[in-house]
Amino acid sequence: MWANQGHAFITWDLMVPAGYNGPSLYYGGSRVLLHELFHHLGLLHPFGPGNDDDDAEGGSARSCSDDDYVSDTPGMLGSAYSSNFYSTAVAYCMERFWETYGGDWEATYARWSGGLGTPQADMNAWADSCPTKAGYDLLGNYMTYNTPVCFAALGHFTRGQAEMAHYVTAELNPIIYAWGQYYAAVSPSPPPQSPPPPEARIDPCNVTQRSCACKQSWDFYGDTYSSCSVLPGNEGLWCEVLDQTSCPDCAGNKNRTVPCVRKCSGTEWMCKKRGPRPPPPPPLPPSPPPTPPPPPPRAVPDKCKVTSNGCKCRNTWQYNGKYWSGCASPDGDKRLWCQVEPSCPDYGYDSYLFYCDRSLTLDSCRVQPVSISQTRSRADPPPAPPPPPANAISGSSSSQPPPPARKQPSSRLPPRPAVGVNTSRAPPRPRPPAQQPRPPAAQQPLPPRPAAQQPPPSPQNLRPPASQQPPANDRPPPRRRRLRQQESEQHGGRLSRQQQQQH
């Protein structure tokens, strides 16, 4: 699932009710989809870029460092899955969802849509893999890994994560971001719909951990038990499965005459009002002192913001997993180049990388990777969405809202589209801001973040061959896929299509 490469892929069984997206598994498939989409929008796991193992991305071991660069997520050594408090977390989330919330899915949907921030119930001192760092491990953050019931009970994004997703998307895909903000502001709300039928309620005290129904009365070594019960000498609750043939828990039980007894989904406290309970959380510690102000951002000279054919470089662009600003050389090319803004006359889907002036150097442009981080730079929160247009286009028969007109962007995020443009023409592409925005500052340090998928191997670092270096008139090299005899006549100043794909 290479969400950081421009697409998110999940298998079909994650999204069907009979698979992982039904109430028996707490609609875990939809949470996986949300997790992957926000990787695509720029978020990392709270515990780092790897997949919750000791071989994190780049070969580095897990640590308590600030791995996701979001200011209000805590330092986490790993997810709850790999922690020493996992069993406590499962029992706590089960009790929270079934006892505190009564297993009510309508109330769960309301909690999920009710705002940003870590809920108080997800601040537990017993869940702290980095005790020297502020905050506690997040059990229900959508960007971490945990058992599905924890997301049903505690699911959330932090405000810093939402702001980071806005910032990264606005920087790297300003056209889509501007259109999204535009339609979010002017599109009418959908008509009210009749309420859906109530969700089927699954009683955890009458099903196994794989949601197989229990017998209401069953015998085990001469003793009779009812539904989920305590078996002497065993931890937790157990029951005999009602129908072995339809229960995956009993797939290994070849002799159907032998009872299939499996562990129940509910806990002793939840079902019998006795047994171990998670310890109550102690009072929260005071907030840590504010972090010192970060160093000022690197200033890019004006001469390093344009290509040799006069097109403006993107303020922030990505290559091979790193971010760059203005003219740079991520692949080691002796001549600097950049990704240009869509306003460039020669811009196209396969033509967006252009060389900069050959006199520029790494030193003269102060080239270095750009850090997109709330914990390394400060900025104001993103502006409010644009207001709906005052009136529509006169005489237009289109039912769609008018597309945005090109207008000068603010110094923070891409410009908001305006009305008054002929809807029969392709919408203009809003330009990114002239100055590099910085990710928003955090409210206060809080708990953890979710896991990301292992990124694919880096593409080959190809650079234009010597045969395609620009001629004496300083025009950039022609596209490789054109015939050589046509190159010098038809094209100049662009990297080849193959190079575009590599870059």
Automatic annotation (TrEMBL):
Biased composition (Pro residues): 277-299, 380-390, 400-417, 427-459
Biased composition (Low complexity): 460-472
Region (Disordered): 273-301, 371-503
GO molecular function: metallopeptidase activity
Domain of life the protein comes from: Eukaryota
Family listed: Belongs to the peptidase M43B family.
Protein name per its UniProtKB record: Peptidase M43 pregnancy-associated plasma-A domain-containing protein
Lineage: Eukaryota, Viridiplantae, Chlorophyta, core chlorophytes, Chlorophyceae
